[in-house]
Amino acid sequence: MGQCIYCGKPAGFLKKKHKKCEQQHEKGKSEIISLVGKIGAAGGDLHQLERSIERVASMSFIDKNTLKSLLVSGWERAVNIAFDDGLLSEKEESALIELKEHFALPEEILDKNGAYSKLEKGAVLRDIMNGTLPERIKIDVSLPFNFQKTEKVVWVFQGVNYYEEKTRTRYVGGSQGFSIRIAKGLYYRTGAFKGERVQTSETVYADTGLLGITNKHIYFAGSVKRFRIAYNKIVTFEPFSDGIGIQRDAQTVRPQLFETGDGWFTYNLIRNLAQL
């Protein structure tokens, strides 16, 4: 006779759980995530929240390890709720930090799916939009950039793929077959050259490296390519889901694309800094 993995009572021959217990368990998990998500974004009595969570966990056969993961999932949901309007307010940021500290949730676990980084990015954008250069970034790598005296590093992306647009030229429709000598040094008549030049543009991978964002420039440093671009030299910004494309004002310069993994943040960060 097997025992139910939830309530510990007999579950029947070759059975490991009661269907009712399983349903109560899943319902409790969803309820805890919902409770944490709601309070985490709006703020509230965290002690009352803790008591409610303990009550639901007890009724739903939720152990401590499972509860910890549910708190993380709830915090992630709270971050998404906070960003529903596209912006992170100071109140929402404070509520999320208080929730994190109350339940002693480590940053590295909260950032497993990028939620904690999203919180930091939202705070950085809010500072810039309010006309303040943020001082939140923690640089744990040696930067190869030669910054100017009045420059301030705002963000650094690592492992950025850099692409350039190239123009390819080919000829189509030209004469085919054997060449026939017409005169000394000549093998085709003028009218036989009917081929046309066709140019096509394509985006090609150029390098991978660090992308530094300051209050004045965009810096890139890879194993092959290294350059700096002033904001006042950029004429267009193009957002992508995983990065940003820019076009400088020089006629000979082709579009440049940076794959950062977060197009929303990259685009809003650079556009707002360019307007300061």
Automatic annotation (TrEMBL):
This is Uncharacterized protein. It comes from the Bacteria.
